[in-house]
Amino acid sequence: MLKINKFEGKTEEDALNKAMVELNCEQNNLFYNSEKVEGKLFKSGKTIINVVQKSDIKEYINDYFKELGNSMNIDIETEILYKNDSFNVTLLTSNNSLLIGKEGKNLTAIQNLLRQSLKVKTDMVIKVNIDISNYKEKKLKILEREIKKIAREVQKTKVDVSLDPMNSYERRYIHNVLNDYENISTESEGEGKDRHIVIRYVEK
Fold first, then answer.
1. What residues contact 49, with CB distance under 8 A and at least 6 apart?
2. Which end of the chain is more exposed for a tag (fewer CB within 10 A), N or C?
3. Residue 15's closest CA among 31, 42, 34?
């Protein structure tokens, strides 16, 4: 179970210092949100922060996948690394294909459900990325090769190309891949599930 600790102080910094002392950890080991409570009359008010430790989040993620594995009757082990403001979770399973699903749909659903579960438990937005046997990395490498091929065609023909709809992570990845391509620009268009990238030819 995730333990949410409450601390208060005259300022957010005061409340955070109390949290670090009582929990005996540094600020980079904590997630928190804050709420300013206005004082009455001439009182300046106070700040209340809700705090959860990263170690507790890791434990929650481990327990989450233990329960998932038990319910699906498969073995699931987790390796969790906190990097770039995100919990990066690698799953080691006895049935990768089942958890990944067709075109990674099961994996995406599991990731979204875990994020939502953490949001409900903590009332905080906690970034979690889940991968199995480097499925996402391999998929991105394939995507990168295809996108570079399309970009070269756009350079040659000067005809813009609209790509299939993609999630925000894949769109951001493509923007970065083609950022330095000569005479090429990328734009995201559309809304919701139809949001996609257009690779455009740009004269310099």
1. 6, 7, 8, 12, 15, 16, 19, 32, 33, 34, 35
2. C
3. 34
The DSSP secondary-structure symbol of 84 reads T
DSSP 3-state of 113:
helix
Global pTM? Answer: 0.78
Note down pLDDT in tens along the chain; length 204 residues. Answer: 788 999 999 888 999 999 999 999 999 999 898 888 776 655 667 899 999 999 999 999 999 999 999 999 999 999 999 988 899 999 999 999 999 999 899 999 999 999 999 999 999 999 999 999 889 889 899 999 999 999 999 999 999 999 999 888 889 999 999 998 999 999 999 998 899 999 999 987
Q: Hey, CA dihedral for 53, 54, 59, 61, is it positive or negative?
A: positive
